[in-house]
Amino acid sequence: MITAAAMAIGCSADINPEDVNVAAYKDGKECAVSFTFDDGMKEHYTIVAPELEKRGFRGTFWLCCAWIHDDPQIDTTHITWDEAREMARNGHEMSNHSWSHPNLTELSDEDALLEMTRNDEAIAGQIGERPVTFCFPYNAYNEERVAMAMEGRIGARLKEFWFGGQHSPDEYLHKQIEDALASGSWIAGMTHGINYGYDCYETDPSGFTRFLDYVKEREDRIWVGTFRDVAGYTKAAEAVCLNTEKKGNGLVISPAMPENALLKDVVLTMEVASEEGFTAEQDGRKLDVTVRNGKSYFDFNPFGGNIILR
Ligand SMILES: [Zn+2]
What is the pLDDT of residues 185-197, one digit of tens each? Predict the structure, then answer.
């Protein structure tokens, strides 16, 4: 005869401390893709952001604030502050590409720092949030400039694949995605103009939305996140330590995380190599457990208290 107590023990015995890990990416996705857009072009507001939003994606837009003018007499090829604020409100990341787009490796330390901080202050003043990521103009950097840019930030774009027209036929783009899936990597795509301007699609602007659709079709395996969100997740996932013990008929997981104000809002996904039904709670709150491909996943606060599985 099977008693209730025996059933409870039988159930919990299926989860062991070694079955519990922080997932490499949010929701246990196999790889991550960040769509990033350089130079604050007007089409980023009129075309890119709406196309991303239609698919539930959010992008990262690298702004040079010297190029942003609210007066159409001065410039119509870049976004305005009203547009930048609207994009930020809709969940896009508006971040730092230096104040005026110089090659930062050719400037003095003082001038390079000013290019970064002046742009930070302009974005913080206009949008209300100081950028925590950075993108080098011309993708030009060296060790000193990377160290300078990383001060007070969680990430800088140091490697990218182009998804602008001339550089990126469909087969090339598909291969970027398939390679990322195969290697479990985080990749950042970059582009500038869509119909006009530097590196635009020229003859076939539909290449842009075709690529978004290709990624969307694989969304169950790919995390599409802003550069800030993926950088924050991967940094926190690396930093957190889990102490996991069996207790009674459950498991107690104690996360330990070094103080880091830049990561304070990051939520991590736990991956449990079991599809047995269990409940999870942290700090008295029940956590949503989902089962996929024989594993269970739930989000937790890496700065929070003990997580109890039973
Ligand atoms: Zn640029």
Answer: 999 999 998 988 8
Q: Report how many domains make up the chain.
A: 2
Ligand 1 centre from 62 Cα, in Å?
8
Rounded distance from Cα 139 to ligand 1 centre (Å): 8
Taking only the tens place, the pLDDT of each residue in 270-300 is: 999 988 788 999 999 999 999 998 999 999 9
Q: Let me know whether 226 and 298 are in one domain.
A: no
Residue 150 forms part of a structural domain: yes
**Whether 278 contacts 286, CB under 8 Å:** no
Query: Does a structural domain hold residue 22?
Result: no
- C-alpha of residue 190 to centroid of ligand 1, in Å: 10
Q: Does residue 19 fall inside a structural domain? A: no
Does the predicted TM-score (pTM) go above 0.85?
Answer: yes
Q: What percent of the chain has pLDDT over 70?
A: 95
Residue 188 Cα, ligand 1 centroid: separation in angstroms? 15
**E strand or H helix that includes residue 300:** strand 295-300
**Do 40 and 167 share a domain, yes or no?**
yes
Q: Domain check: are 82 and 168 in the same one? A: yes
Say how many Å lie between the CA of residue 140 and the centre of ligand 1: 10
Distances (CA, A) of 227 to 89, 109, 146, 180, 268: 16, 26, 16, 16, 16
Q: Domain of 260?
A: 242-309
| pLDDT surpassing 70 at residue 3 | no
Co-location of 128 and 277 in the same domain:
no
Is 6 a residue whose pLDDT tops 50? no
Statement: residue 4 has pLDDT above 50 = no
Does the pLDDT value for residue 36 go beyond 50?
yes
Q: Give the long-range contacts of residues 115-119, CB within 8 A, separation 24 or more.
A: 116/148, 116/149, 118/65, 119/63, 119/64, 119/65
